[in-house]
Amino acid sequence: QVQLVESGGGLVQPGGSLRLSCTASGSIFNIYAMGWYRQAPGKQRELVARISNGGTNYADSVKGRFTISRDNAKNTVYLQVNSLKPDDTAVYYCNADLSERQSTTYRRGSDYWGQGTQVTVSS
To answer: For the chain, where are the E strands, in sequence order?
Structure first.
């Protein structure tokens, strides 16, 4: 079984910064990509940033403010969030596209999610 565990959320004033972390553990054969999504109240979940061997991509709303990075040895992805705005308030979810060992076979899927970490930007 695969688990993704996020940490690093919290309450921060506008203009502040946070560093979110997400570590994947369990029966992982290979991780192809990891990313961060967010969901604000009453809104759909949206992609924030994603990192793979092919590079990184960001939502237009966070370009220049957020930076995604990855430590492959630790199966961990980070999201450095700077210059936070009230509109960044949301639950941030970690996502992985990976292969999971299952008995005698492997399952490739991009539907691996963490439990979410709350980021609240308010004065």
So the answer is: 2-7, 10-12, 18-26, 28-39, 46-52, 55-58, 66-71, 76-81, 90-102, 105-113, 117-121
Q: What is the pLDDT of residues 70-122, one digit of tens each?
A: 999 999 999 999 999 999 999 999 999 999 998 888 898 889 999 999 999 99
Place of tokens 């403010």: 65
What is the distance between the alpha carbons of residues 105 and 97, in angstroms, rounded to a whole number? 17
> 86: which residues sit within 8 A by CB, 6+ positions away?
14, 121, 122
What pLDDT, on the 0 to 100 scale, is given for residue 52? 96
Query: CA 103, CA 94: separation in Å to the nearest integer?
Result: 25
pLDDT given for residue 7 in this prediction = 95
Residue 109 to residue 100: CA distance in whole angstroms: 8
Q: Which residue has the tokens 């990075």?
A: 69
Q: What share of the chain in percent tops pLDDT 70?
A: 100
